[in-house]
Hints:
Blueprint: H1 2-20, E1 54-64, E2 71-79, E3 86-94, E4 108-109, E5 115-119, E6 123-131, E7 142-150, E8 154-158, E9 161-171, E10 173-178
Antiparallel strand pairs: 1-2, 1-9, 2-3, 4-5, 5-6, 6-7, 7-10, 8-9
Amino acid sequence: MEFFTVLIQAIVLAFSLISTTSASPIAVPEPQQPSSTDTAPPSKSNPITESNPWVLTNIKKFEANSANGATYITFDFKDDNEGIQLKTTCSRVVLPGKGEIADGGSTVSCANPDVGFSYDGSSIKIQRSYTDPSVGPPGMDRVTYFGDNAITFTDNNNRCGKFSTRAQLLVKATSAIAK
């Protein structure tokens, strides 16, 4: 037991000497820069950008003929921009008698809530959010990009309603906010 008491006293003495002397500071090694094969997180020197358009695929819309059928629009969303790649599915279903698929500008969250959309009957508007430390400190580093594009469909009418499809639509980000 006496050994531990002496050891603790020696440690306390050593720390008190270190804190009261003005000897040269302890050398701290410089951080290593990532090599060209490393993937570094976004920083002020390499901010994220939405330079490639978002790709919407497998776009389907169904407008029911009667008040008894549901109406919907659905598509797959893909963002291939470096550092923020994302795939998700987006859809909006309107139950019978609850309105039209054209939503008048209200944004619907996709399966991944970092992506949302609205459809006004002639264009799709997309918003895409993510965290980017290059725009500010935590809590002020959330970026949302917005883009839209007109859309036309290939229509197929049947007795239940109009089923419309489009294979692909590119949507370019045109504006952004950070908060």
